[in-house]
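Hi L., both proteins are below.
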Amino acid sequence: MRTLAPWTEQFQHFTNEIRDQFWGDVYRHTKEVWQQSFERLSVEARDRYLGVRDYERVPGRADSRNGFYERDVVTLFGTLRVRIARTRRQAFLPAGLARLQRRAPEVTLLIREAFLRGVSTRPVGRLVALLTNEPVSAQTVSQVTRDLDQAVRQFHQAPLGDDWRYLFLDGVSLRVRRPSGRKRVQLLVAYGVRGDGTRQLLAFSRSQGESQAAWEGLLQDLYRRGLHGEGLALIVTDGCAGLAAALQTVYPRVPHQRCWVHKLRNLLNAVRRRDHAAVKADAQAIYQAGSRREAEAHARAFARHWQPLYPKVVQSLLRDLPELLAFFSCPRRLWRKLRTTNVIERCFVEVRRRTRPMVCFVNVQSMERIIYSIFNRFNLEWRQHTLRQFTQAA
């Protein structure tokens, strides 16, 4: 079997040159076609307005041709210098261009999507310049993304209805640039699941911490938008004391489940490392039990075993036991889903991944635009994908 000889450096250079020439020609001709198309549309719009052909004389005309003026438009094929037809009274922009518009809609969409994908404002400008040969300033990127503010307001005001069956509440910490320096801002988030398995990120709000007042603000917002809690079977939280107090104010009749992952982590932080495995196994036996009565028996066994070594750990577990076992009142298929806040924590993984390249948000408005974009994408994807366990338990 014959083997092909390796390419020589000269031949590689030749093929690269041919490739560059080919794509360069395609790029140039495409750019010319776009420019000619814009100019033709402008002339056609002017002629339709006048209703006469070139050099045709009509007595008593109210308006007449007045040549052209040039205008730069940034497109994905670079900056086009387009001749805009005009009369003595007005100019005629081609279809697709608005008054004072300096960028094609595709370029504006590219700027917005790059920003929402986690690229900060200055790198967005450099990225767009690679395609359009037109530098875009950080201020321009900020102005373009401000168009999302209306969508953010609509998200915060959208009615929710009262058909939600399970509510998950948790918070994630993000960094925002303030005049006094970088500050941590807490993002409080509500995630709802209906009885048929459909789910949605319902709301988010920013605060300085997870105080009772901060969580009451988010819960009152949910209530105002229609989630009165009449159909809620369980509210799952990470165990935050401020959140637990806020729930007693807004949704006092809804059972409250504390997350076992957070609780187990807190218990292990209070024991010696050599006892981690044993304490963890005994605690897991509680929530993995086949019934609430069996779980309570495992809890009593845990207390007898570890009371001499870790009395505060045992006291903490027994104090929170009713809220740790609330999930047993729900369908058995859902126990694994309802005993932790893992479903909402997975959303936070995406939030951290998308915001990590930014290091720090310039302001809270910028943070809300990004968070809204992430949550909106989740909600759109989830319209076609229900949570199977909840659907089967319905």
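That was the first. Here is the second:
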Amino acid sequence: MVPFGGFEMPVQYSSLGVSASHHFTREKASLFDVGHMVQHRFEGPGATAFLQRITPGSLASLPTHQSTLSALLWPGTGGIVDDTVITRLGPELFYVVTNAACREKDLGYLKEQLAAWDGAEVRHEVLDGWGLIALQGPLSEELLTQILESPSETNLREVYFGQSRFAKVKGAKDPVLISRGGYTGEDGFEISISPSDTVAVTKTLLDTAGPEKLQFAGLGARDSLRLEAGMCLYGHDLDDTTTPVEAALGWIVGKDRRDPGVSEADNFHGADVILAQLKPKSKGGSGVSRRRVGLVVEGSPAREGAEIVSVSVDGKGEKIGVVTSGCPSPTLGKNIAMGYIKDGLHKAGTEVQVLVRGRPRKAVVTKMPFVPAKYYKEPTPA
């Protein structure tokens, strides 16, 4: 057990070690207790406009029961306060999940932003005590279907990546919110459960599936899985000084939110900085000086804080970046890492060196995800 975001969290469970749990998730299914995450509801006639002020997403056109990855942004700088997933549940009703490690900072930020908001009414509620579990792996749909009270009414085959549904499940008095997605790169679901039903729903899922198909997984497997999937961990790969463009998350800026003629006062926080960064200097923008990249490292694994340097015989090359996350990849059998590197050296295939305990190790900039995602996506119309 380790302290994490104000909770005591298991790195692993006694039934499986970290690597075995990682493989079990990729081959069958794992259950992650992510109830430490902070769940919010934003409601009221000004909810859409308010969330579009503090995030860069196209929420006005987001369909009901559709989710999007986004980020809370600092005014002026465009730095990331926290990364978040936003789901529209109604015309002016949103379900938002933020990180436990940022809880106090995020709540302070939201309180400040709501106090400064001069638009239509917005009601904000933190869903304290609500459970959140993540069912991840190729058997996830099969196992979740088994505990639905009406599988024909809530047909999970018709719920695609990024979509959600309310459904009744066995062992619960209240409907749960089922969202297809997760933090592993595998197919799966995150399930938000009312406080009185959390234990019952979790137990029903485990007992119905059986240990040969479903096991609990801890922080260790969660970290190696998310890194193979190329996903960021706030406080490591993202922080208050990082903009979405630097973090290779420029795609979270909605296409309809990129009008440079709209001032930041009428746009999302940090728009002036972020929109300029989206354009390279050669096209009149500012570009960025660093970019988040993936790395495959030879020899020893590179951990957070390891310097990335240009190639040299003695390992004393110029510092060009820093590793923010790294571990051996159980799936690939290679050492993988994520970090920030000088702009211009971020292209896949670029050879660099990483200093591991002072010794240079060969590394290659690599496209992410390291392991192809297996999301269940809606078929593209012919």
